[in-house]
Amino acid sequence: MMDRISSGRRLRIPFIGEAQYVPTGPAEMALRCGAAVVLGFSIRRPDGSTLVRFKRLPIDDEPGPELLAYRIGREIEGHLLDYPEQWFWIFRQNPVWPGGKGAPNAEEFERSLTRAAD
Predict the structure, then answer these.
(1) Region 26-54: what's the mean pLDDT?
(2) First to last CA, the chain
């Protein structure tokens, strides 16, 4: 799960104007074995029901686990921004959330990952 603190290599990515650490392990495993990367999000509806959406990310052209981990983080951020009232942090994520200083610019960050892979 990308929003959980874990051991192993983590990447500091731009996230909601701040910075967030995400593990690179899930992306590394997916790229090594060719597994699908599928994100799932639930949305609580006004009538009390729940809608669950899944999105499969293409990984055929991913140059490395860092860029894939970054793109996963961007998908999570997009869902959060679409439904901020439904986001619930169970615990403090890490020392840079919230109010992380020096959050990288998202566009430049993605360009740097793409250049590094070339």
Answers:
(1) 91
(2) 28
